[in-house]
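Sequence, please.
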């Protein structure tokens, strides 16, 4: 059931990053935020551009310095939906790669669990167990990060900066959801049924390593994005409450 766990996790990442990025751009859209998210914006748009080149899709416009996910425009791909899905999903993997790459450069400052979920029965109860396992993995990852993080260590601070920038920059374009959600659902369903019919890709060491790293970055990304969105909503609530309370008093005078 690792594939269904990954499918649910990646879909959660898409919605969490979209919500967080959208709120930041809408309410804190200033030069500091643009500069802060710039590395992620560049990786995001370059990921789109690279997959456009690989699939032979013509790029009509490319701006690497936009933080609102509108930096690239391209013509209709030669193979509709399949190439659309590949191009639109590119930033998820591009940003994830950079998180793992930076973590490696910094000697893996924060170690998180990348163990596979155990086999879960394909039933309604199994689905609930799968979701519970994913949430447990996210909570364990959050606690692991919190217990290991040391603000006095430069590499820990740099890694924190990297995962915030690149997880928020995973945010898809609004119109990309129509390709991403069915695309990942179909992809992981195919992988799941291959396993059921005895074609176990996980027996290959390279594929097993890839899936473990993907699982690790998935749980880490959900932990970071859920925390960021939670605090963003709390801060927005306080600000709006303050403005409503003291703004009305000021206007009555």
């Amino acid at each position: 059931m690792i594939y269904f766990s990954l499918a649910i996790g990646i879909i959660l990442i898409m919605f969490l990053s979209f919500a967080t990025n959208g709120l930041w751009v809408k309410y804190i859209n200033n030069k500091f935020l643009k500069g802060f998210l710039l590395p992620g914006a560049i990786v995001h748009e370059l990921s789109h551009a690279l997959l456009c080149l690989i699939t032979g899709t013509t790029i009509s416009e490319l701006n690497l310095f936009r933080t609102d996910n509108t930096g690239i425009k391209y013509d209709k791909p030669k193979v509709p939906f399949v190439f659309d899905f590949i191009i639109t999903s590119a930033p998820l993997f591009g940003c994830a790669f950079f998180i793992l790459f930076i973590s490696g450069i910094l000697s893996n400052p924060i170690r998180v669990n990348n163990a596979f979920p155990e086999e879960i029965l394909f039933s309604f109860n199994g689905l609930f167990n799968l979701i519970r396992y994913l949430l447990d993995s996210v909570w364990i990852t959050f606690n692991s990060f919190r217990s290991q993080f040391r603000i006095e260590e430069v590499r820990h601070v740099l890694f924190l900066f990297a995962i915030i920038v690149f997880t928020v920059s995973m945010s898809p374009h609004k119109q990309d959801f129509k390709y991403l959600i069915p695309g990942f659902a179909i992809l992981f369903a195919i992988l799941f049924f291959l396993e059921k019919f005895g074609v176990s890709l996980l027996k290959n060491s390279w594929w097993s390593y890839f899936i473990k790293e993907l699982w690790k970055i998935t749980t880490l990304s959900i932990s970071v994005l859920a925390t960021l969105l939670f605090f963003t909503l709390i801060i927005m609530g306080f600000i709006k409450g303050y403005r409503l309370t003291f703004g009305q008093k000021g206007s009555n005078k």
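The chain has a mean pLDDT of 82.
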